[in-house]
Amino acid sequence: MDEEGLAILVEDVHKSFGSVRALRGVDLAVPRGRVLGLLGPNGAGKTTIVRILTTLLRPDAGRALVEGHDVVREADAVRRRIGLAGQATAIQPELTGRENLEIIGRLYHLPRRVARDRAAELLAAFDLEEAADRPAKTYSGGMTRRLDLAASLVGEPKVLFLDEPTTGLDPRSRIAMWQIIKRLVASGTTLLLTTQYLDEADELADEIVVIDHGKVIAAGTAAELKDRVGGDVLEFTVPDGQQLAAAVAAVAPLSESEPHVDRETQQISLAVGSRGSAALLEAVRALDAAGVTIEGLVMRRPSLDDVFLAVTGHAAVAEPSAEERRGRRGRRPALVSDDGTDSSHSGDQRRN
Amino acid sequence: MTAQTIDIRADTGLRRLYWAVSDALALTKRNLLVWWRVPAFIVFTVVQPVMFTLLFRYVFGGAISVGDHGSYVDYLMPGIIGQTAAFGSIGTAIALGLEAQKGIIDRFRSMPMSRSAVLAGRLIADVGRMLVTIGIIIGVGYAVGFRFHQGVGSAIAMVALAALFGLAICSVSAFIGLAIKDEESIQAFGLIWLFPVTFVSSAFVPIQSMPGWLQAFANNQPMTAVINTLRYLAVGPTPGATTLEPHLWQSLAWLFGILVVFGSLAVRTYRRLS
User: Fold this and answer.
1) In terms of CA atoms, which chain A residue is nearest residue B102?
2) Which of A23, A63, A241, A285 is 20 to 30 A from B16, alpha carbon to alpha carbon?
3) Which of B30, B105, B114, B274 to mutate to test the interface with A (most CBs of A within 10 A)?
4) Helix and strand tally (H, E) in chain A?
5) What is the domain range of residue B139?
6) What is the number of structural domains in chain A?
């Protein structure tokens, strides 16, 4: 794709904070009107990419264009074309929803009357009409997020950046947010969305880029990424921890790759290709022959969780063990690194 | 594409200035609306200077001899007004620190608005708040016996200089707030530096009553120059300020200098926020 058709182009961007290398050569290309899901655990570099593309940070090396404008040299032109919403809110809680949007309209240099109309229009579109003249601090979490998203749309952006738009929302508000985002995208806005939730990327994104430790480690549509897992996934729990090893040994021959064991939940999952129910039967027989008792046996289509596991060798949101929690520094979750230096998970790793 | 390029070029000079003012006023409105909704904040900023007025007027005042300066309440009130303007600046540091920390400033920086607007809107609103507080304190002063002796014009000039002084201290405070960001640290350190500056000056006691080494500091720091000018404008010549000129020019030079130095430091810190 030539640069003309691209809403976002990122080429070999590097960024370090002191000795921490947040981005280590990232490339992205998002055609106009498409949705890119940027997926990765906390500390992977997602927010750094968004901050560079929204002109808040300068890259150390490489270049980044939004709608053809360089984020460093033509920052003002970029700012006129983008909207940003995310965890950090632009909302002043003491002001009403309407006042918040009207003032932001003025900051986008809309004439007073236009700013007023735009605010009313957005409040209606986001189902906030009833609450429009109440202070924003009386809003629920979902309403605040909707108001914040409305604020990012005041300037009618061509490219919208949503940094973890549903983090911390209850499931119902999350689904409501998804519907709003889908409506926006249908109207032609280019969207870059960061998320830790694999189902969210699956639900909203045309293309998904998986990022870990400041590098793109996989890219493709949700279907393409799922194909990398290798067909269906068989999953079961072994209630007796002593039998975990025996269970793995029993089912390993059925798996396309090494089975994944979660020692905390004592759950085993394995990719069984497209052999359908035959794989299920073989697994039950093998486990029975090995004398292993299991619970909650299911066969399902692979989720993006499985994808993450397959490409990174670790789960997307790993719960750090007690000893890792004591030893870790900073906010980065204790995950196994992709060069395999964290030995505590090495038994669980698999590659393809 | 070309149309946009032309647009950017046209966005210079007067147009840019127009939008800088417009953006600053939009944010001033935002800040003032917050106080309108939560007047408690204004009340808290008034309580402290009222307390100081009463403490110095009725507790310490009797023990403080101001010699030929006239009545102590006339000596005191210009000092209290200067202190009110200085201490009111803590609000600037806290508000900017919070906005930086919560990411509000990031959102503004991602918008095509003037780079100076967040700081300018904050300072304008804070000076407005300061004027309200000073008005209330003058009222309290009148209740406890203070009087302007130089007429209305001089009184207005005094309030204007106090506001300019407040603005200068707010620019220092803005820098502190943006540099520290953390609210608790700002609460702890944002005011401490103002104690020696306000108390080791001519605000509450004549400088002659201090030991010599302290007089050297008190005589040559901006607060004294400003308080002497405020006092002259309020009550006329006193032994501390027999004429207006040297004190007024010293004050303006100090305030201009502080504004330039700390204003640019604040702008620089704002631009580098991340």
Assistant:
1) A88
2) A63
3) B30
4) 12, 14
5) 22-272
6) 2
CB atoms within 10 A of CB A112: 10
SS3 A15: strand
Q: Which of A226, A251, A277 is the last residue of a domain?
A: A226
**Cβ-defined contact of A90 to B30 (cutoff 8 Å):** no
Least CB–CB distance from B33: residue in A80, A84, A99: A99
Residues A213 and A267 in one domain: no
Q: Which ipTM value was assigned to this complex?
A: 0.84
Q: Using CA atoms, how far apart are residues B128 and A277, in angstroms rounded to an integer?
A: 75
- For residue A320, the model assigns a pLDDT of 39
For residue B10, what pLDDT is reported? 55
Of B27, B104, B111, the CB nearest to A79: B111
Cβ-defined contact of A84 to B23 (cutoff 8 Å): no
DSSP state of B241: B
Count of other CB atoms within 10 angstroms of residue A114: 13
Q: Give the closest of A76, A90, A106 to B104, CB-based.
A: A90
- CATH number, residue A233: 3.30.70.100
Tokens coding A289: 């022959």
Give the pLDDT mean for B121-145: 94
CB A310 within 8 A of CB A229: yes
Is there a single domain that holds both residue A248 and residue A221?
no
Give yes or no: residues A107 and A72 share one domain. Answer: yes
Nearest CA to CA, how far is A48 from chain B (Å)?
A: 10
* H or E element at residue B178: helix B151-180
pLDDT beneath 70: ranges in chain A: 1-2, 87-88, 314-352
Question: How many structural domains are present in chain B?
Answer: 1
In a domain, B251, yes or no: yes
Q: 10 Å Cβ neighbour count for B210? A: 17
Domain that holds residue A139: 3-226
In sequence order, what are the beta bridge partners of A63? A11
| Both structure tokens of B142 | 């009148």
